[in-house]
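FAQ: What does the model actually see?

It sees only this:
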Amino acid sequence: MNEADEHWIARAREGDATAFRRLVEPHARPLYGLCARITRDSALAEDAVQEALFNAWRHLQSFDGRAGFRTWLHRIAVNAALEQLRRRGRHETSVDAIDCEDDFLGDAAEEQPGPDRRALGAEIHRHAEAQLGRMSAIERTAFVMRHHGGHSLEEISATLSLNTNACKQAIFRAVRKLRGALEPLR
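And it is asked to produce this:
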C-alpha cells in the first residue's frame, strides 16, 4: 500500500468523508466495470458499486492492510455484485441489458476494416456475451477478475472464498465454455 492510501485511510477512519472519497475515487470506474461484467446489468452494477462503497466506509476500521486496499475494495464489490444477482435472480437480466464502455471484446469489431469483418466481430461479441450469461456467477466472476481485471489467482481466491485449485477450475471452465461458444464462428 502506498503512502497516499495510508494517509487517506487514516483520515477516513477519523470520519473524514472527503478523505474517503479521495481514497475510493480512482477505483470507482474499475469497480463499475467489474460489477457490470459480473451482473451483466448496468443498474445492478451501479447498485453493487454503491453498496460496496457504503460497506467499505462502514467497515474501514476493520481494514487491516494485510491485502492491498484495491484488493480489499474489489472483494467487497464482487460480494456486492454477487448479492445483487442473488436478490434479483440470475436469469432476469438479458444479454443486451448492459452497455459498458469497456465491454467484453472492447472495440475489436470497430478496429477491423470492412463491413464483413465488423459483422463477424459483432457476431463473436454476441456469442461471447450470451455464453457469459449462461455461466455460473462464480465462473463469470473468476473469469472477469482474471482476464479483464488482471487480478492474481490469490486475489480471486480470497475474493470468492475458494482455494486456488477451485479458482483455477472456475476460470478453466469459463474459458472452455467461451471457446466452445466461439468455435462455430471459426
